[in-house]
Amino acid sequence: MSDESSKKSIKANNNDNLNKKYSDTLLLPKTNFSLRADTVNREILFQDRCSKDLYQWQIENNPKELFILHDGPPYANGNLHIGHALNKILKDIINRYKVLHGYKVNYIPGWDCHGLPIELKALTELKNVDKSSLTPLQIREVAKKSALDALEVQRKEFTSWGIMGDWENPYKTLDKEYEVRQLQVFHKMMKKGYIYRQNKPVYWSPSSRTALAEAELEYRDDHQSRSVYVKLPVIDSTLDMQDIPKDNLYVLIWTTTPWTLPANQAVAINQNMEYSIVYPNDNTSQNYYIIATKRLDALRNVLGAGLNVKSTFKGQQLIGTTYIHPINGQQCKIIDALHITEESGTGLVHIAPGHGMEDYETCKKLNIQTFCPVDEFGKFTSEVGESTFEGKPVLTDGTLAVIEYLKKRNILIREENYRHKYPYDWRTKKPIILRATAQWFANVEAIKQEAIKLIKDVEMIPKSAQHRLEQFTLSRSEWCISRQRSWGVPIPVFYELETDIPLLTDSSIEHIIEIFKKHGSDGWWKLNDRELLASEYRNDGKTYKKGNDTMDVWFDSGVSWTFIMEKVKRKDFKAIADLYLEGSDQHRGWFQSSLLTSVAVNNKAPYEKLITHGFVVDEQGRKMSKSLGNVIDPKTIIKGGNNLKQDPAYGIDVLRLWVASSEYVKDINIGKTVMSQVGENVRKYRNTARFMLGNLNNFRYNQLVEYEDLNLIDKYMLHEVYHFGKVVKTFYDEYTFNKVVQALNNFTNVLLSAFYFDIVKDRLYADHIISQSRRSVLTVLYHILNIYTISLSPIVPHLAEEIYENFKNISHKECDSVFKLGWYNLGEKWDNQPLQQEWNVLKYLRNEVNQLLEVARKDKVIKSSLEANVKLYVNPSELFNLLQKHDLKHIFITSDATISSLSSQMTEDNSKYVNEIKLSDGICKIVIERASLFKCPRCWNYNTQIEGELCKRCENVLTMN
């Protein structure tokens, strides 16, 4: 080793020894708050405190009125998914925020327990049992067990997410008391004339063998049908038939549902449209066709490239023309229907009132019979009129049979595949049909205008939800509420055996309600018909049989507001609940069924505020799908996967922060990259809190420095804290939690870690423990930690509780939970606008200084900013005075910073690190030089005259100790 190297080594060792000698005299952070989260083990320690115990405490102790977020009941079937997490965590953030503001939060979780999927799942689980031999009571027994088992699994998962609520006393749509209230709503709607029975087309699922509501459909864009063009012979017409051979004139129709042709009752035209008789150039068969004139070009490929027009006339002239039915050969008429357009087909539409809603309404006005030769399995019945069709499924073999029949009769012009949008059963994922059956309906037409009027006063997030809900409501005229299943609440109706006339009266329903109070809905199947009948009908000379239909599950869940009215009994409320919050699919589901039933019975909206969230998609924006392999289980996020390196255990709070970080009114992305970033944010929150806790470990509330005595930078930081606190509260109030998270991240990373903490470390570590300058910083850290923890708590409650556990002993108000502190108070004097303006200049100047320091660091002139001195040259001005007020070397984190007049010149400055900037009050020249003094072995500032000796500040601190 050379002499020079040896000297450097000895010097380095001496410096190390000096640094170690004084390190114990520094006030370095000390805390029991762990750097490592260990969420799987640590979060559980705080769960009861901030969830189960807190819920009961706030109901008993919070001073303000009730806040009711009414829980939309999830379906008691299967495990929870990431969409459930999004929904429940959003609700919990709101409830926790309300608790902090002193409200008594009423949050009763609920479950939707009836319906086809539960029934089918329960039956599937029965092994070696002939399902067809089961009685309704046996089916109901296994379905109930299946629902309650699923409910218990879901309840455990919900509570594991830290969702605060009354989990021991949820509402369930299968509860006896709930079913009684449901029948009472049905009774009130019946008394007002809103309930009726009608034989008309409804959405029918052959795969489920039940009627469906619009909300139970999903539409596929790639459905493929067999479309046909069919010629129907005209028998009698008022049209000019000159030169047209008898029996050679046809009406041409087009349909995408050939299976509905056996049920044809008419052909409809629009009397205001123009029609033509046309024939092809090569008219060897001498056939003539009636089509809409504007469809002429579109039909050239069907009838032949060269089409000639024989005559043209108004559609009105066609009304009353008769034609031969395509299947049974009977005579039918052409009728008028205003919904017929020139947009597609031929302008003449085959009408089957048993299989189309518009067809039904059109024929009803003309007293044309509704005919439906299709059974509950979606198969042709014996009424179809052609034996070869009978028993065939209409969507498959039945369609093929009809097409073959049309070919044999020589009336099929053309057949082709047709891809289009088509409704499917949302549970079985199979196509539905429209089928006329006798069903029970609620009259939406009678109440929807009042409903629209009432929801105009409902605050909705996003605002676009208002129009969406209005349009879905306006588009309905009635609601099919009957279902053909055993597992549900029965429609309490009897039918006279001879006439099929329904018996549904006040006394008959009141009698059933009393039975339900004792037996629940099982009583409908347990008791015989005579016991179920009200006494006045038992001997009236008629024979009655109870019905087998149950109520739509949307009616079940739609009356859940009755639970609030009975259990909470809040007086003088504008709406039944303060808030409903669910996914956007509920505009045609629970939001709407709740609205319609509440308006029908109470003439009141069930919610004062309504929040709609989107759906969860993967990082590429694709819907979650098992086939794509992109489904993310909340349990995997919380506890980790089989390979913890690929799927680490993030814990509950990271899952919750993902929810809060999302712009939930849109579809929300999730994936490994997203979760990794969210996990990093929680780690930063933890480290930030740990820094403050470590420095406050020997500080108490009674040591706070008065605002007037704080250092200027500490006053400025309180100004920033004031505005941070204000904006966080505003964003919480607006339910924009992603903006709360943005504010937290910016505050954490920019204002705290990269700015204030860096600047004040020197005072915190090196000043005397009781010095005014150090206590000034600790006063600000105390206020920051209090506001920071409370701001975090609705979103990451377990982390907030752990922070508070290490903070409560120095707090102004020691409680056993951060949520019992209430919301933070902001000192109005902290809002210091003149100081803000000063710091706008200082922060700009600091940024310019940092850029020069970075150049010197890259040139290896300095290693750290403490090895530098800063010289500022400014003309006498307000800027000069401003700079003199502040401790610039701490702001720049350099060992020295001086201010001189620009006119004093810089001839003595030989530094190449110079920059000239323009400020509002003049020019400022910045010069960076390497520090000329020696490094203090205690505080590492270069401000001592003799190498190895302490600076004056450190010497005084050790002397005082």
Automatic annotation (TrEMBL):
SUPFAM superfamilies: Anticodon-binding domain of a subclass of class I aminoacyl-tRNA synthetases, Nucleotidylyl transferase, ValRS/IleRS/LeuRS editing domain. The keyword DNA damage does not apply. It holds the Pfam family Anticodon_1. InterPro entries: aa-tRNA-synth_I_CS, aa-tRNA-synth_Ia, Anticodon_Ile_BEm, Ile-tRNA-ligase, Ile-tRNA-ligase_type1, Ile-tRNA_ligase, M/V/L/I-tRNA-synth_anticd-bd, Rossmann-like_a/b/a_fold. Its main location: cytoplasm. Its EC number is 6.1.1.5. It is found in: Cytoplasm. Residues 714-871 form the Methionyl/Valyl/Leucyl/Isoleucyl-tRNA synthetase anticodon-binding domain. Residues 52-670 form the Aminoacyl-tRNA synthetase class Ia domain. The keyword Nucleotide-binding applies. GO terms for biological process: isoleucyl-tRNA aminoacylation; mitochondrial translation. Gene3D superfamilies: 1.10.730.20, HUPs, Ile-tRNA synthetase CP2 domain-like, Valyl/Leucyl/Isoleucyl-tRNA synthetase, editing domain. GO terms for molecular function: aminoacyl-tRNA deacylase activity; ATP binding; isoleucine-tRNA ligase activity; tRNA binding. GO terms for cellular component: mitochondrion. Keywords: Aminoacyl-tRNA synthetase, ATP-binding, Ligase, Nucleotide-binding, Protein biosynthesis. It comes from the Eukaryota. Belongs to the class-I aminoacyl-tRNA synthetase family. This is isoleucine--tRNA ligase. It comes from Glomus cerebriforme.
